[in-house]
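Subgroup meeting minutes
Present: P.N., E.W., G.H.
Scribe: E.W.

1. P.N. recapped why we're keeping a running log of single-chain structure predictions: easier to compare across weeks, and new members can see raw inputs and outputs side by side.
2. G.H. added today's entry (163 aa).
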Amino acid sequence: MESLPDRPGSDRPSPPVARRGGKLKRMTEETRGIVQDLREWIDLRLDLAVREINDEIDDAASQAVLGIVLAILAFFTGLFGLTTLALGLGWALGQPFWGFLIVFGVLAVCSFVVVIVAKRHPIVVETKLFRRLRGDRYRSETQTSSDDDQAAAGTDGGPSTNA
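Output recorded in log:
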């Protein structure tokens, strides 16, 4: 039974114990061996980096496809669900028109509420890049909107620093 080499991936045979030649020749051979090992290591690292990037791209593409499929399914589920609700309300009220009108009204009110809430309380994920690019402008915008809210409510938020 043969033993495994000390280093996997090394195709060079182990150096003999006693070599012929001078010191310079031995150093040259050792340097060539080190350079060859370094080249192999760099090639393997590059292959690993390429494979990792390909895996990340494949994962992102899979997530995007999954998101698109789920969005399409959610759209049709909502469409058929709201149509069924409208037809059911219309059937209960005697006219399909009334069911569709009620569903439209409820959706319009929900949309209006979402728009109002989103304007008053924007969802912002503050990252380092966001703070660097828009940090001061965002703080001044939120300060101005909070001053406007306080003025509309009739409260005094103290002295304003905005010019």
